[in-house]
Design brief:
This protein is an alpha/beta fold and 155 residues long. Helices cover 46% and strands 12% of the residues. The chain has five helices and three strands, in the order αβαβαααβ. Strands 1-2-3 form a three-stranded parallel beta sheet, sandwiched between helices. It starts with a helix and ends in a 7-residue tail after the last strand.
Length: 155
């Protein structure tokens, strides 16, 4: 399997399949009276909203852009059933997979030039977005794309 196909499967097809299975489960629980609402929170990327000049990642951009629009379509389809669907679009975050790359001189300079906060995200900084979107009180929030990216997508 090619790298591009693997990327599309991991970053888009898996989201599609999990949304479908989760929505079916939530619908059954709501219909049975076991719960009153459902929340689906997809993880896309700031690259699903804008391009980049750092590295060539066309399959990643395409898959994350598709997740953004899939989220909107799923929100429309599932809203009448009491299920909200939203997406979080993280920017650059330090993780096990990215720390080595983000700590290079090239990417440190890239952050200073392209991220208004002039840094990358740290562990825990996505938590409040997920808590907000998952809350019962967020029942009127659906189809939204929440960038948590230090301002990367605002410029």
């Amino acid at each position: 399997m090619t790298l591009h196909r693997t990327t599309m499967n991991l970053d888009l097809t898996s989201i599609f399949m999990m949304n479908r299975k989760s929505a079916k489960y939530m619908e059954e629980k709501i219909e049975a009276g076991a719960q009153t609402y459902g929340r689906i929170i997809n993880i896309a990327s700031s690259y699903g909203m804008v391009g980049n000049t750092a590295i060539p990642t066309i399959a990643y951009h395409a898959s994350k852009g598709a997740v953004v629009n899939f989220t909107r379509a799923a929100a429309d389809e599932l809203a009448p059933k009491g299920i909200t669907v939203n997406a979080i679009c993280p920017g650059y975050f330090y993780t096990e997979l990215t720390t080595e790359t983000l700590n290079t001189d090239y990417f440190q300079e890239f952050a200073r030039r392209t991220v208004p906060m002039q840094r990358y995200g740290h562990s825990g900084e996505l938590n409040s977005a997920a808590i907000f979107l998952g809350a019962e009180e967020s029942s009127y929030v659906t189809g939204q794309i929440l960038a948590v990216d230090g301002g990367y997508t605002c410029v």
